[in-house]
Design goal:
Elements (H helix, E strand, L loop, with lengths): L2 H12 L3 H7 L7 H10 L6 H11 L3 H4 L7 H15 L1 E6 L2 E6 L5 H22 L4 H9 L16 H14 L1
Antiparallel strand pairs: 1-2
Helix pairs in contact: 1-3, 2-3, 7-8
């Protein structure tokens, strides 16, 4: 999720109007709403000092607003928090283990994430059972979704290819 989407999410959560957020972050009344709209739409990206001011006004960490950085533990945690907000990801404990669950009741995005995680879990289980090699597993992961055979979406053949296949079928008879 881009920084503008995060600003929008937290602004709505706080019940603030664009102008209110902009003014609280230090922009003049005359263009506070325009500036905030530019940030939220992604046509402008706030510099670090403005991001820090917005985070302070929104009562969040600056890392909660910025594009997730999974190369740090804090960035990874904020990525997971974003997944919680967007996709219904939940953290819980099962049998003494911390696990992440997807609450599919959160909507179609949560259901789609759940479907994708099921496909991943299926491949991981095949690896664990020795049904596929580590190389097969890595190929699946690094070429996802191209190699995902669990997808319910069917690709429609082009008319030309369909006709060629039918001609070949009739020629073989």
């Amino acid at each position: 999720m881009a920084i503008g989407e995060r600003i929008h999410f937290f602004r709505k959560k706080q019940g603030l109007k664009l102008k209110q957020l902009g003014q609280a972050a230090g922009f003049p009344e005359s263009n506070a709403d325009v500036r905030m709209a530019q940030y939220e739409s992604g046509s402008r990206t706030p510099k670090a000092d403005i991001t820090n001011r917005l985070a302070q006004v929104l009562d969040v960490s600056p890392q909660a607003l910025t594009v997730p950085d999974i190369d740090s533990y804090t960035g990874l945690m904020h990525t997971l928090f974003t997944l919680e907000d967007t996709y219904g990801l939940k953290v819980t404990e099962i049998n003494g283990q911390i696990v992440l669950l997807v609450d599919v009741r959160q909507g179609k995005d949560a259901a789609e994430l759940y479907r994708m995680l099921c496909a991943w879990q299926e491949q991981a289980a095949k690896l664990e059972a020795g049904e596929i090699t580590k190389e097969d597993y890595d190929r699946w992961r690094y070429h996802y979704p191209e190699l995902d055979v669990t997808q319910l979406r069917a690709k429609v053949l082009s008319q030309g290819l369909s006709e060629l296949m039918m001609d070949n079928l009739h020629n073989d008879e």
